[in-house]
């Protein structure tokens, strides 16, 4: 394992985790970074740096960012975003994993990238549900703004400082898992 391999894996997993905040922002950041030659993807994923991908991802990102500020639509999008974020996280992490075997490459992409995206998405969904329940949806734009900032900030950090970003992402994922476990324990305690 070389430093290049570790760095590219950190980029893939870091960007994948950011898909849990917003699905299209990390894809757009990856597309821009590959177009500018800042990062490189594996063979077969060069389409990410092409103009059609860049234009399509830009339009999707603008729609996604705006839609989360519409009170009823944000909760609908959270429902749809869970499987889509896992798929996007898998795609992103796989596109940066330098592994010769496609089965192992996609398997690790699903476990590391899809898993981290799913965990972050679960945390943001619970946060939005809590905001909706306690503020009647009035606090959701604040939550959306925080998620937008986190998605852009962590995605850019991942591209520029992947080893630092993976540590930050690890802390965020561990925090979300601990919060989910705590909520589950409280829920089961109330039921018994």
Structure description:
81% of the residues lie in helices and 0% in strands. It contains seven helices and no strands. Helix 2 packs antiparallel against helix 3 and helix 5 packs across helix 7.
Rg over CA atoms, rounded to whole Å, is 17 Å
Poorly predicted spans: none
Q: Mean pLDDT across all residues, rounded?
A: 90
The total beta strand count reads: 0
Order of helices and strands: HHHHHHH
Largest beta sheet, briefly?
none
Instruction: Please count the helical segments.
Output: 7
What's the topology here?
Blueprint: H1 3-18, H2 24-35, H3 51-67, H4 71-96, H5 102-135, H6 140-160, H7 162-191
Question: What's this, in brief?
Answer:
The chain is mostly helical. It has helices at 3-18, 24-35, 51-67, 71-96, 102-135, 140-160, 162-191. The protein has one domain.
């Amino acid at each position: 394992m070389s430093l290049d391999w570790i760095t590219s894996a950190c980029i893939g997993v870091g960007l994948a985790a950011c898909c849990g905040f917003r699905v299209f922002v990390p894809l757009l950041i990856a597309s821009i970074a590959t177009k500018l030659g800042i990062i490189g993807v594996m063979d077969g994923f060069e389409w990410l740096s092409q103009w059609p991908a860049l234009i399509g991802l830009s339009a999707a990102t603008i729609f996604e960012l705006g839609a989360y500020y519409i009170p009823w639509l944000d909760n609908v999008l959270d429902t749809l975003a869970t499987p889509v974020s896992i798929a996007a996280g898998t795609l992103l992490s796989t596109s940066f994993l330098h592994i010769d075997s496609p089965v192992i490459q996609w398997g690790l992409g699903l476990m590391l990238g899809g898993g981290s995206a799913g965990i972050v998405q679960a945390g943001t969904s619970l946060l939005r549900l809590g905001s909706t329940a306690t503020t009647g949806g009035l606090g959701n734009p604040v939550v959306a703004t925080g998620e937008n900032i986190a998605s852009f900030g962590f995605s850019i950090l991942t591209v520029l400082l992947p080893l630092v970003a993976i540590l930050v992402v690890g802390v965020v994922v561990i925090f979300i898992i601990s919060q989910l476990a705590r909520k589950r324990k409280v829920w089961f305690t109330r039921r018994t």
